[in-house]
Amino acid sequence: MFDQEKILHEVLARIKPTPDEQQKMQEVADNIISLVDQVALDLGLSEVNSLLVGSAARNTWITGEHDLDIFISFPEETTESDLKTIGLEIARKVAEDADGFEERYAEHPYIHANFNDFEVDLVPCFRVSSAAKIKSAVDRTPFHNQFILSRIKGLENEVLLLKQFMKGAGVYGSDLKTGGFSGYLAELLVIQYRSFPGVLEAVDNWKPDTFIDLLGHANKTHNDPLVVIDPTDPGRNVAAALSLDRFARFIASAHEYLESPSELLFFPDPTEQISDRAFEGILILRGTSMVAIVFEKPDVVADILYPQLFMLHRSIRSLLERNEFMVLEGDVWAGHNEAAVVLELLTEHLPSIKKHMGPPVWSKPHATEFKEKHMQELSGVYIENGRYMVDIQRKYTQVADLMRHDIHSCKLGKHVGESIRSDFRILQNTELLGIKQASFREFLAEFFHIKKPRNPDASF
Amino acid sequence: MFDQEKILHEVLARIKPTPDEQQKMQEVADNIISLVDQVALDLGLSEVNSLLVGSAARNTWITGEHDLDIFISFPEETTESDLKTIGLEIARKVAEDADGFEERYAEHPYIHANFNDFEVDLVPCFRVSSAAKIKSAVDRTPFHNQFILSRIKGLENEVLLLKQFMKGAGVYGSDLKTGGFSGYLAELLVIQYRSFPGVLEAVDNWKPDTFIDLLGHANKTHNDPLVVIDPTDPGRNVAAALSLDRFARFIASAHEYLESPSELLFFPDPTEQISDRAFEGILILRGTSMVAIVFEKPDVVADILYPQLFMLHRSIRSLLERNEFMVLEGDVWAGHNEAAVVLELLTEHLPSIKKHMGPPVWSKPHATEFKEKHMQELSGVYIENGRYMVDIQRKYTQVADLMRHDIHSCKLGKHVGESIRSDFRILQNTELLGIKQASFREFLAEFFHIKKPRNPDASF
Lengths: 460, 460
Description:
Chain A is an alpha+beta fold. Chain A has helices at residues 2-15, 19-42, 55-58, 80-95, 141-151, 156-169, 183-193, 196-203, 244-259, 276-286, 302-322, 364-373, 399-406, 414-422, 438-447, and strands at residues 49-53, 67-75, 100-105, 109-115, 118-127, 210-212, 226-230, 233-237, 289-296, 327-334, 338-345, 353-360, 382-384, 387-393, 425-428. Chain A has 15 helices and 15 strands.
């Protein structure tokens, strides 16, 4: 246990903001809040006030993260259009003092501004009476803030450790790309299990259908691997965005840590970038076929882009499998200006013929139609398992041809669809090396599950 | 309808025995029966008598078929050992007059003898009080004989037509190789539907779960595509040996006949024998891979051999599919002295790696074991759908190697197993042409569903 304490102590030293850093953060937040309140007052809106929410408000932020979430809170009876226009007006006025700002869009528009090296979101919201009665998704945040503040005192370091551990395990972030744990969820786990080691010991025993309800007030069922009932809303699962994969990864990492704790689990070595030669070697070693569709990355935020990439991936995979190309592995990548779906196949080439299944012999009108339609095929019509069958010419014997011609029959999201309709490339095997971006070479290392030495010193 | 009458008339002219042939058959049968009765009497067995059963007894045999089934009937209270020894003694004495004979074995031994060009089975049986109380399978036959004789008068020609049609369709014979219709079943269908066209019109509307019960006395359910309750045994399905494939083929042929009747359906052109050049052409055209295991044909009757070949086929297919070789088509062949299982594959070669599925991440002892076991594998252990996975070296990347090494793990029947353990060959692609037997070349034509011109004159 001494070992573990030493590790946690060292990790904490690397991630806990210094008193100076904390003070600086506090000052910046105070200044902006005063400014918001002043602007509101100048507009004669005494009912509008502002508050700091998120990890900055709770002292659960990791050093170097300078994100401030400042909510501009309007009375519940404000109309939506007033919230939008007046909310933005206040936020814009405040942002005039910033080094730069832009309008961003979630359910409602908000302002993202830079004050020195602080990233500040100025978000208008409704001040509703309970989290179950929110008028827009962000209205929930002040309730979360309040709940955590009331319980987290003294546990802040545990939250920092858990967040960093989740980052190391690749499961931190409830964005749609990651499908992992939100900061709020990490805080709730610490409140439930009282310490970082306590969380990991609990997680080590998790299975799908794990259920946590701090206030014992759940009022509906959820069908997710992990269910953590929101203390501020009995009908909501805080872990709804957590994918089975991230859930499993977290359990696996917790188990690994408990078996042999190591700082490397908090700060893993950076993923290797696969060189041209390494990639060529891997292809020979694996003997599989690689194919990728590459297209211009649509200029939309990750939460819009990734669901469309995932859908494209699923859809191409199903196209290939319907056509008897066996897919071993597949994933999506998005770089600076390009995006891709990459697949590994058992083979890129199939024989000229395929079996085509017809109706049961006793399904008379269909059977007659089938026989007439296929009179000219390669084989005669024959019977298998009570059905008419015929061997027909396979339309595409090369996977690249199939993808090139049938990609437009795949389910294409709005932006990815526009990009693919305008242009795309199909790359095969070593052609993938045409993509030189570091992030792609890291993606390939993960794609092939290249082993990272557990501990570099241990390899001798 | 005139057309059809003309066709049936012509078919009948080709298959109905002449009066001379019938008379000859009757004389031979009468002589043997007298001989059996005399031999029994000489042994002081006045309770033993003989009877002619089967198609010869019912005038439902096709010209040229000179098979006589003569049953030697013992009182019910005879012991099994007496039936065997005394039954065989009588049969052997009778066969002393024959041109040659041999002992054969079904449930009990019997004698197969040649009298001129007649094939005669001399079969001891018990004379039980009803077909539901039989002591051995053959005891049922006299009851069948009696029932058919009581109903078939005037319908004999219809039976001849139906049997010949079934032969043309490849569905005649309830042996284990064919899995088709027995002569008794054909006779029952004619009794039920009153004429050959009547049978085909009924069959054209058959679906799986067709149920026929002439006497309305069924007393249990059966799970077969066609159920025809035995008029002599309410618990028995006469069509139990009929495979789904032969059931479907019969429906398809009936439909074809009703759409355009033709003598060709009764007397199809002989199957083509595939030449070396044709086979090479087919392989190029189809682009698939052929593989066969060839071994010495065990010296056993077809009803013993074929179930073992079918089992071997299923077992090899499952071996290949477990190892990710995709099987398109497969069948068994037995020639003069060799037998084979022949398979057509999407590909004969697979990549060096394969995915190996481990336990769920949350199944702790198994997960630890899996991770330790696979520490040295090609890829790192990774997670997919909540399970640990690892990419491992595929043991056999060539289908021939897999079959050569793992054939002994397949389910091998007694005789086929002995043969394969003593020796076998794996042939691939054009190596199959090493088998020159006509029956193998016909087998290949059927394997590839080579189209037969429906009517040779129609091809212009």
